[in-house]
Specification:
Layout (H helix, E strand, L loop, with lengths): L1 H75 L4 H61 L1
Length: about 140
């Protein structure tokens, strides 16, 4: 009977440890879910920014082609020189503003990608911790 008391005490201690580890696993799972939600949000933002970036690149390309066309018209006709120069200046300003927007979008994209990488690394760390704890629980049970 006294030997059984020792095993019973050890069993109670292990049961408490298992309960504590299960609570910690639950907290880690919740944290991991929160990180996954944030990753999905960041991924959606990256996709949105990429579409916007593609749109702006297309606009830049179109505006660049338009500027080339305007330059051709300037050399072909001196009568419309002043009007075309004004249009060219407007298009150049628009192109500059779009280029600045594209640079800002690229900066935002890099920031989001860095955040995504960080979140993915944290998720991998949490998963490794979770696996380690599950292994500890399994060892304690056996």
């Amino acid at each position: 009977v006294s030997r059984l008391q020792v095993y019973k005490g050890e069993s109670n201690r292990k049961d408490k440890l298992i309960v504590s580890l299960r609570e910690e696993i639950t907290e880690l799972n919740k944290s991991m879910q929160d990180k996954k939600i944030r990753i999905v949000t960041v991924e959606d933002e990256v996709v949105r920014k990429e579409h916007l970036l593609q749109s702006k690149d297309s606009e830049i390309h179109k505006l660049t082609e338009k500027i080339s066309m305007i330059n051709g018209q300037l050399t072909a006709s001196n009568r419309t020189n002043m009007s075309l120069q004004s249009q060219l200046a407007q298009k150049t300003d628009l192109l500059s503003s779009h280029c600045e927007e594209v640079r800002e979008l690229k900066k935002g994209r890099r920031f989001i990608e860095d955040g995504l990488s960080s979140a993915q690394e944290q998720t991998r760390e949490k998963q490794a911790t979770l696996l380690s704890m599950q292994e500890r629980v399994r060892r304690l049970k056996s």
